[in-house]
Amino acid sequence: MATDISGLYQDTIVWDAHAGVFPSPQVDLSLLKDWHDSGVNYVSINVGFDVMEWQQTLATLAAYRHWMLAQKDKFTLVGSIDDIEQARQQNKLAVSFDIEGMNALNDDIHMLGVYHALGVRQMLFAYNLNNNAAGGCHDKDTGLSLFGKQIVEQMNHLGIIVDCSHAAYRTTMDIMSESHKPVVFSHSNPTAVCDHQRNIKDDQIKACAQTGGVVGVNGMGIFLGDNLSNNETLIKHIVYLSELVGADHVGIGFDYSPPTGLDLSAILSSRPDYWPAGQCYDTPHIAHASPAQLQDLSVELQQFGFHDAEIRGILGANFHRVASQTWVKPTAKADRNCIKYAGPW
Length: 345
Description:
Layout: E1 15-19, H1 33-37, E2 42-49, H2 54-69, E3 75-77, H3 81-89, E4 93-100, H4 111-117, E5 120-124, H5 146-158, E6 161-163, H6 169-178, E7 183-184, H7 202-210, E8 215-217, H8 221-224, H9 231-245, E9 250-252, H10 265-270, H11 294-304, H12 308-326
Parallel strand pairs: 1-2, 2-4, 3-4, 4-5, 5-6, 6-7, 8-9
């Protein structure tokens, strides 16, 4: 293990913009210890994706919220940016929720307010395939629908981060044109480094940066290239993004999940079209970068020539900036469609 002589890692907000934990009420969230023990300060965990029915998303949210609020000595369920710094000072892991795709709305835009009130602070528009709001990266690129445009407006208003990962090219460009808040790709890599349909092109990356947003490097080997997930491979993507749009627009979204013990064969086999053939999803033993690599990554970025301020940004300050500009604290005046909620923030 490399030695962080400068103490930079310990003094930096470390932010993982998306964990790939399978969303299920049966998941034991004790696995979040992996992030806490690795010095991560904040992580966004998935509570639903387009493959699932919206009722399953709500059931997962209920279970996760119950678990989080019963573990206040170790974890903080956050709703505002101030909660993250408070959790950090108390040596707790700050957690909020994200949803991958708009099927969770059940065609009802008012559901955005419900999800926001329950702790969702980031939402993707599509998970690989098309839905009524947007086009997915493994489907015909239909662009953003009128419903999708209304969703962008409402997300901006409520304070939910607009996330373009898993969406199709034209759809992402539409989203970034519509949003008046910074837009992110929470866990996507540059196509120029690894040519995969899940990865994103240079003009998508540039458009994201122009919104003030951030691209989070995904830690899955099939999206990094050659099924490698070591720091050398991660740095190739970080360097490419930084040279293209500047280190201020680069972050971490490893899409990492520790083993859950769940049997996922039924749901995966029920909709194989979400993970089409020829896209390496059938790769045996897909490699995956984990939070345990981040401290060494900070040292290797220093050795590569990145300045400390750039490294702080990549490790978390850049996503923290986006959240600061996007999240709003719920109030009685926030929105008539957002249910009044007294906690945890």
